[in-house]
Write a sequence for this structure.
């Protein structure tokens, strides 16, 4: 019997990477999950409450406040503290915490499902601008230099890379000089179809985003006032009240901040919306954009990153080349003018279904590992 382990950055927020990990843990229910740390009672912790999770010996200090971020220089020690040499197969879910460098045996195969090479290491936009203060910027530059070397070195020891999109496949080739296979993340298309089947459209647009550093929120808020539609924003944030008062003023009160929603409620919000607005400039993939299409709702998305792979212009949404009031205003008019075919939106979303993910992952692992 093949002995399998899963490895993941850490357990805090439940986002796209954690959704992928959850499906992997369903595929391999007996596989323990090794992680840097787990925040008890967090949204991610609740989703994995029945799984065997093994934290690093550094977990007690990493989970104090947000020390896992300033203590990122410990990353080599964190992963190096794990000995996974008794496993035949290790499947890694890697993102910003690098999540490689653990000890393996001579026969251990390592498959890395890469959500992205760490964005903070390679100059990509982050949701939180942690380098805006010059002492942090200097610290980050020094630590980043050594972490890039560590990231590259550990990437060479991976047997096989899987990229979550063609966008990430290009980054893996650029930064690691490694080939990879694209397997898109698992979207609960069937569940979304069932939940949203009989919903009626309402006069609002929706954005799903952390409110810290999210691009386009102010522009869309101004348009909500100008074009007289309601904007609903789903997502966790810091400084919620400050953001709320600012956006409420810009929107003329045409805004609702819904906070974090459980999946069924999120799907209903998507299903009733006129459109989803997604404006990250270089999104790794963007699962919510596909979830919106599965709910029969067209998308306004920035013409870049993974959005290009999931949005078909004029069929499932509108791609915009710049984030400005005029550009977004034209896109909103286009969304309202076109008679969107729900069947076409759902059909496109099916390309990214959970069933296809499981089928492709199973075939890949059977072939290579």
């Amino acid at each position: 019997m093949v002995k399998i382990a899963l490895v993941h950055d850490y357990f805090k927020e439940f986002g796209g990477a954690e959704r992928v990990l959850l499906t992997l843990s369903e595929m391999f229910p007996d596989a323990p999950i090794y992680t840097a740390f787990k925040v008890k009672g967090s949204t991610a912790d609740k989703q994995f409450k029945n799984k065997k999770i093994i934290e690093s010996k550094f977990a007690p200090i990493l989970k104090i406040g947000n020390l896992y971020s300033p203590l990122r220089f410990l990353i080599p020690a964190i992963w190096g503290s794990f000995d996974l040499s008794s496993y035949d197969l290790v499947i890694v879910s890697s993102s910003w915490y690098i999540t490689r460098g653990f000890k393996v045996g001579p026969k251990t195969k390592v498959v890395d499902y890469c959500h992205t090479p760490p964005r903070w290491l390679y100059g990509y936009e982050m949701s939180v601008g942690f380098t805006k203060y010059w002492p942090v910027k200097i610290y980050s530059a020094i630590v980043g230099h050594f972490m890039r070397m560590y990231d590259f070195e550990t990437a060479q020891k991976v047997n096989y890379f899987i990229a979550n999109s063609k966008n990430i496949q290009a980054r893996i080739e650029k930064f690691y000089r490694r080939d990879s296979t694209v397997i898109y993340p698992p979207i609960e298309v069937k569940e979304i179809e069932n939940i949203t089947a009989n919903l009626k459209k309402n006069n609002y647009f929706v954005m799903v985003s952390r409110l810290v550093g999210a691009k386009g929120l102010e522009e869309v808020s101004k348009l909500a006032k100008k074009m007289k539609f309601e904007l609903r924003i789903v997502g966790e944030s810091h400084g919620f009240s400050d953001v709320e008062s600012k956006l409420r003023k810009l929107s003329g009160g045409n805004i609702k901040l819904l906070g974090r929603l459980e999946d069924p409620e999120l799907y209903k919000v998507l299903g009733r919306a006129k459109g989803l607005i997604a404006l990250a400039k270089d999104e790794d993939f963007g699962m919510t954009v596909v979830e919106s299409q599965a709910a029969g709702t067209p998308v306004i998305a920035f013409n870049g990153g993974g959005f290009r792979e999931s949005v078909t212009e004029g069929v499932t949404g509108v791609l915009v080349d710049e984030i400005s009031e005029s550009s977004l205003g034209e896109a909103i008019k286009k969304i309202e003018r076109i008679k969107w075919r729900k069947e076409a939106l759902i059909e496109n979303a099916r390309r990214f279904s959970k069933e296809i993910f499981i089928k492709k992952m199973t075939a890949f692992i059977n072939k290579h590992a």
